[in-house]
Amino acid sequence: MHWTTHVVSGAAIGYLIGHPVPAALVGFAGHVALDTFPHDDPEGDVPYVVDSLIGAAFVAFLATNKKMRQVDSSRAALFGAIGAGAPDLELLAKLVTTVHQEDYLYPTHNGLIPHRRTRLAYSLISQAVFLALTVGLAFRKWRRLRRA
């Protein structure tokens, strides 16, 4: 699954949860669900790095944006994003050294829980639908709270 998908959905779910520690834990555990959902991972170093940079920019936005702090004073979205994205940090090792699948710790990375693969087009559509659903629910909560 794209790292950006993990951190954006983790942020949305974290915002829905509303408390930082449960948001981080659900994000971390939810990483398994997204990895087992049929998807196509970025191939090669360049798409992987670009995806990682986009996700990192999103996390930086959550961490530094003043309006975001007003909307989410508990920082649950930030913690949800960090929790959801954290398992993929171990994958960065493959950019600088040879890593074998069994060297990874996270169960969907080391093969204990298998990744499910599909074609790129289906993967992009399913990730877009999942993001629209989670971000849409977070936006709905934000609008409801803003009106109150």
Helix residue percentage: 55-70%
Report the total helices.
6
Look at the structure and give the mean pLDDT.
Answer: 91
Number of domains: 1
Helix-strand string: HHHHHH
Poorly predicted residue ranges = none
Query: Radius of gyration, Cα only, in angstroms?
Result: 15 Å
Distance between the termini: 36 Å
Beta-strand proportion: under 5%
Total strands: the figure is 0
- Strand-pairing-aware structural class: mainly alpha
Topology:
Blueprint: H1 3-17, H2 20-36, H3 45-64, H4 66-71, H5 76-85, H6 120-147
Provide structural commentary.
It is a single chain. The chain is mainly α and 148 residues long. It has one domain. Helices cover 65% and strands 0% of the residues. It is built from 6 helices and no strands. Helix 1 packs antiparallel against helix 5 and helix 3 runs antiparallel to helix 5. The chain starts with a helix and ends with a helix.
